Amino acid sequence: PSHEYKLNFKKSKEVCLSYIQDAMLQKQWKRAAEFLTFYIESLEKDFSTEYMGPSEMIWRIGTEILCHHSNSSMKEFNSFIEQMKTLGVKRYLKVCLEHAFHLLCNGLIDEAYQNLSLAESWRFGEQTIIQNKELKLIQAYRGLLDYYSWRKQKNILLEHGQDGFEDLSVEQEMHSCFRKAAVSLKEIIEIPGVWDLFVKCYVDLLEFYGDHNEARQVLNEYAYNSKFPANPNAHVYLYQFLKRHGESKKSLTSALKILHDIVPSHELMIDFNIMLQKSKKRKKRRLGLEVIFAALDYAGWKENVKAWSCLARQMKQIVMSEKHLDWIKQEWNSRKDWWPAFHFSRYLAKRNWQENESLSYEKALVAGILLGKDCKYFKYISHQGCKAQVKRFRILKKFVNKHSPVYLRISS
61 CB contacts (<8 Å, ≥6 apart)? Predict the structure, then answer.
């Protein structure tokens, strides 16, 4: 073919692709399917020597269209995917994996398992070695489905108790699923990466069979091995495991300390603060104040009554003892320019009072200590509380008025 023909052909392909993209963005799946058919037909007529093998593009676009097209069926989807597997040897296992996901999303668990098992036994010379990562994922997801079967069998046993021949077969099936799942899951979580679901399932298997040491080792490795990416969930899982098994406060606080360093806004920071407040060590109580202040820097915590209650309780203790006012001062120094507008505006006072009396009480106590008795938030809430004749608001007003010199010392 002439050079001009090649250029025109290339241009028409690009135009066709842009039409497909436009139709998909507008969710016009029927129109997108028609353009894709035209695009595939045009590729069959492509005689250019620099053939680019667009099967990945067709696979991605075709899958998306079939997932949303009103007339498409599972039979059609399976047929299309099988064609893609044949065409795309270089991404065979990737297609298999996505096929399994699609089957799972449609509740076809047995079919997904069968597909993964077939993909696991696939061999194609060098391509098998090149696609080793995908093969590992295939094995891992097959292991996940073995875990799912194990859970099902376990629940049958727990519901019906161990009586009769039938239960023996269920128990045997359960142990068989356990062995297969454990092998696959163990293998994948040894590779550095983020394997949250796989780790949780493997730990569940180990705990059920009483292998707590192995479970602890797995979670420690997942949380602390520097080859693995930093992952807050790894520390959450370790903390939850330690808590389940009644480990020492020291172990629990060290797990949460790392979580605080990575995600200061994590919901477990309330547990962490409570634990630190109860400590007899000054250093830990100081950290507790830092933890709760840091959590309340985030918008998602603005209306968290528990968090404000934790901060109010600790600040009240400090103010009453008049020890460690410098802790409050240090935390407040970096926040005094923006917290008043962020947390303690008159608008928020009105809204908080209307929506949640307990929240407004805790916040008013903190606002009164940090900004003094003339603070807009404190004035509005204490006035409303006293007007409504709620006893604790009268006590709150007295407390802040009595300790007004504290505000002067913090703000100086």
Answer: 20, 24, 32, 36
